[in-house]
Design goal:
The chain has 407 residues and is an all-beta fold. 0% of the residues lie in helices and 51% in strands. It has two domains: 39-210, Jelly Rolls; 238-406, Sandwich (Jelly Rolls), CATH 2.60.120. Strands 1, 2, 3, 4, 5, 6, 7, 8, 9, 10, 11, 12 and 13 form a 13-stranded antiparallel sheet that branches. Residues 1-30 have a biased composition (Low complexity). InterPro entries: ConA-like_dom_sf (IPR013320).
Length: 407
């Protein structure tokens, strides 16, 4: 949000202090099975040369006893901790979301502290309304692995406690003292850091505490709160019939997209791979959309399994081609180049009538349907999870009745 409301008291977890107003946070929580923290940063250091932080990207600054990443225009802004790789630890921080569309969190199990390649990540999306976890592949592309809905969202101008408790192959994530999920790690050790995407985020009281290697992953115990985040499905379902006249939730990738006559229309007839992307992301889901050609060649379709909402690089796609007489599918590689994967003849989609395109993704494969008929079953995918959106090439297309659901 552009304006930050005054901080209000929030639910307190056992052994933790209450939320404080801007610029001040309560003492960091501790883990009962640990001793002295390996790192305890309150950002009151007066000598920058002794700072334990190594920013890789973004605009990071320690000021007024907090650590702020002040750029909300990009993804994966990272500041690493100058520590040896760790396997059994509790990583804790207070964080406060500012202006932006996504959020921040932790990067961990980082093989090389100079790059995010191969690392794991836990961070907020949807303006603090969704906590997700995933990893980066060896080409730095994000791969979604799971998450929970946070209700109410934490973009309330208040401080919130985020904790990651890791014992080699498994981690537990907790928010404000309440356990929200357990993560199966892809590696058993690595470096640690903070991360933000598309949001200005403040951090304070960052602690790293070494835990005994043979101790079971502890469960967060919360006092009975008056308000607390709740775990929802692995992804927040997304539906839009555009009857409200707006385009809330959509992020335009390219082209000219407008809500016209209770439908979402891409109105430019020149340009390929024009897109608008929803906030929905998952690795197991069904996605359906009604679409109709209005002008130009019939080139309507969908993006899916997108690594990022603001670029087509590292994504899958399916759309009409050959004047509406064929459906083609493929992917865009990390350089944005289209790689053809398959096609099938279909009834003429340029007839000016509504047609329903469907994509079902599960276990790294996709099944494509058109007007209820299976066009291709279990197509192998280059990318197995990510965001879902709409696509138009060299055509004016109307879209309606969007339904993206976790399965």
């Amino acid at each position: 949000p552009a304006a930050q409301p005054a901080a209000q008291p929030t639910a307190q977890a056992a052994g933790q202090g209450s939320t404080q107003a801007a610029g001040q946070s309560s003492a960091a929580p501790t883990v009962s099975v640990s001793t002295e923290p390996l790192l305890a940063s309150t950002f009151d250091e007066t000598n920058p040369a002794k700072s334990p932080w190594l920013p890789l990207s973004g605009d990071w600054q320690a000021h007024d006893g907090i650590y702020s990443q002040r750029d909300n225009t990009g993804y994966d802004f990272i500041s690493m901790m100058n520590l040896a790789p760790q396997s059994n630890y509790a990583l804790e921080s207070k964080l406060r979301l500012g202006e932006g569309d996504m959020g921040g969190g932790f990067i961990y199990n980082v093989p090389n502290p100079t790059t995010r390649a191969g690392a794991q990540i836990v961070d907020f999306d949807n303006k603090g309304g969704f906590l997700r976890w995933g990893r980066y592949d060896d080409k730095n592309a994000y791969i979604y692995e799971g998450g929970v809905k946070i209700d109410p969202p934490i973009n309330d101008g208040q401080w919130h406690d985020l904790r990651l408790t890791t014992h080699a192959a498994a981690s537990t994530i907790a928010l404000d003292g309440r356990e929200l999920g357990q993560i199966k790690n892809t590696s058993t050790s690595g470096s640690l850091g903070l991360v933000t995407s598309k949001t200005k985020v403040d951090f304070d009281n960052v602690n790293v505490t070494i835990l005994p290697g043979d101790t079971a992953v502890p469960t967060a115990q919360a006092a009975a709160p008056t308000t607390q985040p709740t775990a929802g499905p692995a992804a927040a379902d997304f539906k839009d019939d555009f009857a409200d006249g707006d385009t809330k939730g959509w992020q335009v990738l390219s082209g000219t997209w407008q809500n016209i006559d209770a439908s979402y229309q891409q109105t430019s007839t020149s340009g390929s791979d024009l897109g608008s992307v929803s906030p929905f992301q998952s690795d197991s889901y069904t996605a359906t959309a009604r679409l109709k050609r209005l002008d130009g060649d019939m080139g309507g379709g969908m993006y899916f399994n997108m690594a990022q909402r603001d670029k087509k690089n590292v994504s899958q796609m399916i759309n009409y081609t050959e004047g509406g007489k064929s459906l083609q599918w493929g992917h865009f590689d990390d350089g944005g180049n289209f790689v053809f994967e398959g096609s099938a003849p279909v009834p003429d989609g340029s007839d000016g009538e509504w047609h329903t395109l469907g994509v079902a993704v599960k276990d790294g494969k996709a099944t494509f349907t058109l007007d209820g008929t299976v066009i291709k079953k279990d197509a192998e995918l280059a990318y197995t999870s990510g965001y879902v959106g709409l696509l138009a090439s060299n055509s004016k297309i109307a879209f309606d009745n969007i339904n993206f659901q976790e399965q």
